[in-house]
Amino acid sequence: VRLVESGGGLVQPGGSLRLSCAASGFTVNNYKETWVRQAPGKGLEWVSSIGTDGVTRYAESVKGRFTTSRDTAKNTVYLQMDSLKSEDTAVYYCTEASSGARGQGTQVTVSS
User: Fold this and answer.
1) CA distance to 16, 48, 91, 98, per residue, from 28 (Å)
2) Which of 30, 31, 87, 94 has its CA 20 to 30 A from that of 100?
């Protein structure tokens, strides 16, 4: 199982980013994937998940602003982040829920 995140960067408040999580060693459709983040000096925070049935769930702090999806042809999971706030600054990781496998993370910095 291997997960590789990309798409992070520096963005101004109110901006958007789309994170990608390319998976190998398993088929994303057959497993639940989650996005978690870790802000400086804080613990891991669950952000969103997408189940095998395609149902998505979100933390209250990102609901209405973030959208999780997946592309089965590319075996990739996405996190579309809109209306970004400074408090969204963190390293973002995708995980495969059953094994706990996690990628190396991608840094998102929201700052003017």
Assistant:
1) 24, 15, 22, 12
2) 87
Q: What is the pLDDT of residue 97?
A: 85
Q: Under a CB-based contact definition with an 8 Å cutoff, are residues 33 and 17 in contact? A: no
Yes or no: say if 108 and 93 are a contact pair by the CB < 8 Å rule.
no
Q: Which two tokens stand for residue 108?
A: 């998102």
Q: How far apart, in whole angstroms, are the C-alpha atoms of residue 97 and residue 1? A: 12
pLDDT of residue 100: 86
φ, ψ of residue 87 in degrees (nearest 5):
-70, -5
Distance, CA of 84 to CA of 74 (rounded, Å): 26
For residue 27, give the nearest of 53, 52, 7 by alpha carbon: 52
Quickly tell me which residue has 């925070």 as its tokens.
45
Confidence of residue 42 (pLDDT cuts 50, 70, 90): very high
Evaluate whether 36 touches 42 at the Cβ level (below 8 Å): no
pLDDT band at 112 (very low <50, low <70, confident <90, very high): very high
